[in-house]
Design goal:
Belongs to the mitochondrion-specific ribosomal protein mL53 family. This protein has a domain of about 100 residues: Glutaredoxin, CATH 3.40.30.10. It has five helices and six strands, in the order H-E-H-H-E-E-E-H-H-E-E. A four-stranded mixed β-sheet has the order 2-1-3-4, covered by helices on one side. The two termini are about 50 Å apart.
């Protein structure tokens, strides 16, 4: 006798799926320049190098082709990522003790959130909300008085 299988067929991807989820949200529109400084022989700079790899992907670079990416390889310096925003502000991340997932989460929290929402998306959300309101305000069918329902008589 065999036991039938029930449940998920595949396991969640773990840290990789979380990184991919954050990478889908990354948008370089509010950034003019990204400066990345790290010591290539330092153990703490691995996550910064991973972030450099992620951010230099063609799909992410296509979100803002005017954004320049500068890599500075230094000796004995802690890994630092500096974002120069179009508004003239600078955001500095000291990434010595951060993972690449933490760096992406901080980027999405502080920089990607600066992008104004797309008007087409706003219109679609408003239309969806109006559709839901119509469904809620639509009169439902009323039961007749003393209607037999599952063997019990109900009064409305």
């Amino acid at each position: 006798m065999s036991i039938s299988f029930s449940g998920a067929i595949k396991r969640p991807g773990g840290i990789t799926s979380l990184i991919v989820k954050q990478l889908r949200r990354v948008n370089l529109m509010p950034v003019n320049k990204i400066d990345i400084r790290f010591d290539p022989f330092d153990r703490q700079s691995k996550q910064t190098r991973d972030f450099l790899f992620y951010i230099s992907a063609p799909k992410i670079r296509a979100t803002n082709p005017q954004c320049s990416l500068k890599t500075d390889v230094c000796d004995r310096s802690e890994p630092i990522i500096t974002f120069n925003l179009q508004s003239g502000e600078k955001v500095v991340l000291k990434t010595a003790l951060l993972t690449s997932l933490n760096i992406l989460q901080l980027y999405n929290k502080h920089i990607t959130s600066l992008i104004p929402p797309d008007p087409a998306e706003l219109e679609a959300k408003q239309a969806l909300l109006e559709e839901r309101k119509k469904k809620k305000t639509r009169p439902h069918h009323k039961q007749k008085l003393y209607k037999k329902h599952r063997g019990v008589y109900h009064l409305l």
